Amino acid sequence: MCDFYTKYIMRNILIIGAGRSASSLIKYLLSKSETENLKLTIADLSMEMAEKKTNNHPNATPIQLDIANVDHRQREIQKAAIVISMLPAHLHIEIAEDCLAFNKHMVTASYISPKMQELDSQAKEKGLVFMNEIGLDPGIDHMSAMKIIDEIRAKGGKMIQFESFCGGLVAPESDTNLWNYKFSWNPRNVVLAGQGGVSKFIQEGKYKYIPYNKLFRRTEFLEVEGYGRFEGYANRDSLKYRSVYGLDDILTMYRGTLRRVGYSKAWDMLVQLGMTDDSYPMENSENMSYRDFTNSFLAYHPTDSVELKLRHYLKIDQDDVIWDKFEELDLFNGNKKAGLKNATPAQYLEFILAEKWALQPDDKDMIVMYHKFGYEIDGKKKQVDSTMVCLGDDQTYTAMAKTVGLPVAMATLQILNGNITTPGVQLPIKKEVYLPILEELESFGVIFKDKEVPYMGYNPNNVGS
């Protein structure tokens, strides 16, 4: 009986959080459950959500789990060999502390928080793998970047430039609005993008900083073969991965988010109005129409309409496509209401966008990733551009769910099977992690196309700064 119980524990995977990003993760592990002798426990605050994701599979057990219920949470963790947390990032730490206490490996797709990093030495002492940042961005970006960087180093090259862009977008055939954008992940994160600190990076050896109120007017343009033109705006901190990637002395390090051309200029107008502010509640917001909401950011005028005041304030011509984008959002509709009490501007805007930018039943999403690697070898400067485009299958198995969930699932199985053994709190930058996962991802349509191009840099003639 003891041997049977031990064997069961060794192949039991506890997945905490059965939301949108977990669909492909669960599907993958269930597809491997017979050959790999896996048992999945799928836990969510919503029993309905957990049951939906198990799809009546004999090797999956749905349970309702409130992680605030410490006894229940710890009982389930004790039953598992490895724990996957698909919860919001700030909730991982309690799971991680339990995994330490009960000697369980752990996998998340989230950035390594300072509190998580503090568990590194204890995880190493116990021989536990705490794999983080193994989703899309962060995740696939790390793995695909390190693969090329390691290859450049192996042939004697020295990295001088690294740029990385990623965007969750709408597939071309489902691109039906003027913003060329629909939500494939948490709308709140999109509305608050870029807030909470200055964006910083290094360009040709010069440190650069972009405050939030200027972020969406400093964009870079990129062309992806077969998919057209995109623009990228800077992520908050491009510098923190220099030492992680072993690029401390690199001249250019820039990480950014991709959108279709024209999105950022229009979004900047919403920022300038104050609609993305999340720092204060608006009085009487439950009775506020969309038109009232827009007007609340504009000066009073006894005769001018809301439309006229907005055009004047933001200097938008009537034939400018930005005006059409605003009208498409119904920002001047006096009959529509969000009905949100004590809503911040960002929350009210999110309500408007969640309706307008929702993926429709037949819509598909798209992930685009673009890396630029500049390096020096034998006295010459060279460049490799690497691009990846992944299309979603449907509303459940979106490109976002695939690219976030599949690396998590693959890493989990690799750890369970003893192929990933380096202990501690880590991200997927070692060959034992990225080589097998990137190879397997190709069979799911996550394929990088690498191309040697002339080195462009930012300052090829060493002028300016």
UniProtKB/TrEMBL annotation:
<keyword id="KW-0560">Oxidoreductase</keyword>
<feature type="domain" description="Saccharopine dehydrogenase-like C-terminal">
    <location>
        <begin position="135"/>
        <end position="445"/>
    </location>
</feature>
<dbReference type="InterPro" id="IPR032095">
    <property type="entry name" value="Sacchrp_dh-like_C"/>
</dbReference>
<dbReference type="Pfam" id="PF03435">
    <property type="entry name" value="Sacchrp_dh_NADP"/>
</dbReference>
<dbReference type="InterPro" id="IPR036291">
    <property type="entry name" value="NAD(P)-bd_dom_sf"/>
</dbReference>
<dbReference type="InterPro" id="IPR051168">
    <property type="entry name" value="AASS"/>
</dbReference>
<dbReference type="GO" id="GO:0019878">
    <property type="term" value="P:lysine biosynthetic process via aminoadipic acid"/>
</dbReference>
<dbReference type="InterPro" id="IPR005097">
    <property type="entry name" value="Sacchrp_dh_NADP-bd"/>
</dbReference>
<dbReference type="GO" id="GO:0004753">
    <property type="term" value="F:saccharopine dehydrogenase activity"/>
</dbReference>
<protein>
    <submittedName>
        <fullName>Saccharopine dehydrogenase-like NADP-dependent oxidoreductase</fullName>
    </submittedName>
</protein>
<feature type="domain" description="Saccharopine dehydrogenase NADP binding">
    <location>
        <begin position="13"/>
        <end position="131"/>
    </location>
</feature>
<dbReference type="GO" id="GO:0005737">
    <property type="term" value="C:cytoplasm"/>
</dbReference>
<dbReference type="Pfam" id="PF16653">
    <property type="entry name" value="Sacchrp_dh_C"/>
</dbReference>
